[in-house]
Design goal:
The chain is α+β, with helices and mostly antiparallel strands. It is built from 4 helices and 12 strands. The strands form 3 sheets. Strands 4, 5, 8, 9, 10, 11 and 12 form a 7-stranded mixed sheet that branches. Strand 10 and strand 11 form a beta hairpin. It is globular. The structure holds adenosine-5'-diphosphate-glucose.
Length: about 210
């Protein structure tokens, strides 16, 4: 379990990853405003290892989830979080292998790179099957999420995964049986997002029909 401490919060300026905007517009003659962010689109991949019939996910600490799970306090003029009261486990997720689309490359190629970086599998491009593309959020972010499915085998495992050390990524690979994946969809003790839940549903409906 990751040890999270020394948490402070400041305002976010000149982010490479998100741009907060206030949108002013007129809808059916009514003047309105909405606060939103422009963000990178993303790609997420449900991985299934057919050698051992396990679903493959990643576990990592997500600051955005953590900060929405805690109460901050001002100490000596600085916004802080008491990590004794609010342990880092509050921000741990189980997710699909995923990445932001911040390179000028076809989406499947970015997906292939993320699978290698995060999970350690060298997957042929032809193994990537598109599930669908949908929106990531409607209130504050509205970027696209491209969802893929890929079958992998133990032979394709060429590394440990875990993310790029150069980017400070600390990711663990999590393997689950199909039954464990089915339970994960409704396990509210785990931080998970709708893309993960939908991808498992899709898998059960399209790949694991009749218990395979
Ligand atoms: N907001 C941010 N602040 C600081 N550093 C950041 C950042 N976003 C990305 N980074 C940096 O960029 C690195 C690469 O990110 P990735 O492309 O692996 O996307 P990630 O797995 O974070 O998921 C991403 O893409 C998936 C698929 O869209 C989304 O579900 C998920 O919310 C999104 O974080 C991160 O390790 C981090 O160093």
């Amino acid at each position: 379990m990751d040890n999270i401490n020394n948490v402070t919060v400041t305002s976010c300026e000149n982010s490479k990853f998100l741009k907060p905007k206030r949108i002013h517009y007129q809808q059916n003659g009514v003047n309105k405003i909405w606060d939103a962010m422009t963000v990178h689109d993303g790609v997420a991949i449900l991985l299934f290892n057919t050698t051992r019939n396990v679903l493959i996910f990643v576990r990592q600490f997500r600051p955005a989830i953590y900060i929405n799970s805690v109460k901050t306090e001002i100490k000596d003029g600085i916004e802080t979080v008491d990590t004794n009261l609010y342990p880092g486990s509050l921000g741990m997720t189980i997710e699909l292998c995923a990445g932001i689309i911040d390179k000028n490359k076809p989406v499947p190629e970015i997906a292939k790179e993320e699978i290698l970086e995060e999970c350690g599998y060298e997957v042929p491009l032809e193994n990537l099957r598109k599930i669908t593309t949908c929106r990531n959020g409607v209130g504050t972010t509205g970027g696209l999420l491209h969802l893929y499915y890929a079958e992998v085998t133990d032979d394709m495992k060429v590394g440990a995964g875990g993310g790029l050390i150069t980017e400070g990524e600390m990711i663990s690979v999590v393997e689950m049986s199909v039954d464990e994946g089915r339970k994960l969809m409704f396990d509210e003790t785990v931080n998970r997002v709708h893309g993960l839940i939908f991808a498992i549903y899709w898998f059960l409906d399209n790949i694991w029909k009749n218990g395979n």
